[in-house]
Amino acid sequence: MYCLCLSEDTVMIEVNQKRMEALMHDFSLLTGIRIVLFDNEKKEIMSYPESHCAFCGQLRRNPEFLGKCVQSDREAFERCRKTSAPVIYVCHAGLTEAVILIRGNDAVIGYIMFGQIIPKNSEAETRSKLAEICRAPGNANLLEDVAAMPSKSDAEIRAAAAILDALSVYFWSSRLVTLPKAKFIDTLNDYIAQHLGKTISIDDICSFFGVGRTHLYQLANQHLECSIAAHIRRRRIWHAQQLLSGTSRSIAEIAAAAGFDEYNYFSRIFRQETGTTARQYRQEQRNSMINRPDQ
């Protein structure tokens, strides 16, 4: 029922695939427009219809055209994220596209894009431009596809964007898209590990995830057994434990490497979290290695 979308870098979303497919199908059926769901990292997750039209599909096989497509979409995503409003734009080929945020409270969860539309107010000019592209070697077979592309007025395009903008809140509130617990924790832990030597603020984490404080606290309540600050401390102590058992570095060096500016504060927190001192923990780990049967 749910499609888990994983990424190498940051927040991903879990999708109720059956319900989302039904909504995307209905939107496309009513409008004749292709619609695409993207995650928070602008990676395509699903679409209806599944493939690009033949025209765009063939252009994207050309590295030069693909680069222009990617750049055009990236700029639209960034504008949409910064303004928190639908962005309607004309791509490099002259087709009209639109990007809408999917948000939960103040969180950016993903994006919905629709497009491959010929604008009615410049239809003759746009079709002429597309025909010129079709005259390039190997593109002659695309003329029929261009002729079949939907043509919409500015009012129709704005109406479609407004409807999807309203639905974007529904996508989150009805759990068509959610943040999976394991991925949230793994991503948070990776971020902490990459910034252990620095002060990590709540605002830093909010910026990384693309969410506001309120939503970050909600995620922490939902996925963690403690506050964000307490989780960061625990990860710092966990890192210190790895260094204590796996290296011969001094405890003061390890405290600094784990992000503790004050040795006394590190000692207090270490004992609070583990029930023992850092020195005792290191000795216990060494003793357990010596007493292992296979040693």
Topology of helices and strands:
Elements: E1 2-4, E2 14-16, H1 17-31, E3 34-39, E4 44-48, H2 54-59, H3 63-83, E5 87-90, E6 96-104, E7 107-119, H4 123-134, H5 143-148, E8 151-152, H6 154-173, E9 177-178, H7 181-194, H8 202-209, H9 213-223, H10 228-246, H11 251-257, H12 263-274, H13 278-290
Parallel strand pairs: 7-8
Antiparallel strand pairs: 1-2, 2-9, 3-4, 3-7, 5-6, 6-7
The secondary structure category is alpha+beta
The quaternary structure here is single chain
Radius of gyration: 26 Å
Quick one: CATH class of the largest domain?
Answer: Alpha Beta
SSE series: EEHEEHHEEEHHEHEHHHHHHH
Low-pLDDT ranges: 1-11
- Named CATH topology of the largest domain: Beta-Lactamase
The fraction of residues assigned to DSSP E strands is 15-25%
Average pLDDT taken over every residue: 85
**Total helical segments:** 13
Query: For the report, how would you describe the main beta sheet?
Result: 6 strands, mixed
How far is the N terminus from the C terminus?
A: 49 Å
CATH architecture type of the largest domain: 2-Layer Sandwich
